[in-house]
């Protein structure tokens, strides 16, 4: 997978070089190119914004800057051709060797699938508080993309004509990471890029761990425990030491149901609950302990 990010603050994207995403870069499963939007801003002042048409507060990002920037990123031309990919912040060679021994696939080409069937336009993601919600389901779908470009707006946002015009060449998705307002799209890109790339085949070592993620079955994940069995007088649940995997699985599902009912009851409405699930919710506790 290849990610391009257009931003006036390239330094904001440095965290992508760390941890799991950094490791994916190092393994060749992911390439990240960060482009400074000001490279497309003409004049000595390199201004990227102007006052909103019709008046009002804030500034709007200019189409004459964004249009050519997106065209060049798509074509790998102009200033976009000069961008070096991000490198991983830390060497993970030892880990890489261990993964290979464990049968992980070799360094991959950017294996991916087109978005909608027959539509080979790459994906252009525009984070904005006015977007539709970014969800785990979108993360799962986007993890199959070959290429995603992120356009980071600042101020009041990007002139709408940029996105309308880009739709001829890109699948444009305006998304929000939550009902609050950030000062720009960069932090949202960090969130989205991490949620997506951890699902890219081969990036997360243990496939089961994201099959059991919160949201992957529409439920929040329940509590988790490690040793010691007793800590500050608090016991980890006995069922987890029973050695009975079926019981442990049932207990985990019960905890997920109970937590979802307490914290996000609206998520339960869309689920296919069986009689046992409903009984657990009615009783407010798991029969497994
Ligand atoms: N930019 C500013 N606020 C945002 C949000 N909540 N989600 C995505 N992008 C944003």
From TrEMBL:
Residue stretches of biased makeup (Low complexity): 103-117
Top EC class, one word: transferase
tRNA methyltransferase TRMD/TRM10-type domain segment(s): 1-75, 119-268
SUPFAM superfamilies: alpha/beta knot (SSF75217)
Any one GO molecular-function label of the UniProt entry: tRNA (guanine(37)-N1)-methyltransferase activity
Protein name: tRNA (guanine-N(1)-)-methyltransferase
InterPro entries according to UniProt: Alpha/beta_knot_MTases (IPR029028), tRNA_m1G_MeTrfase_C_sf (IPR023148), tRNA_m1G_MeTrfase_TrmD (IPR002649), tRNA_m1G_MTases_N (IPR029026), tRNA_MeTrfase_TRMD/TRM10 (IPR016009)
Region (Disordered): 85-117
Protein's organism: Corynebacterium sphenisci DSM 44792
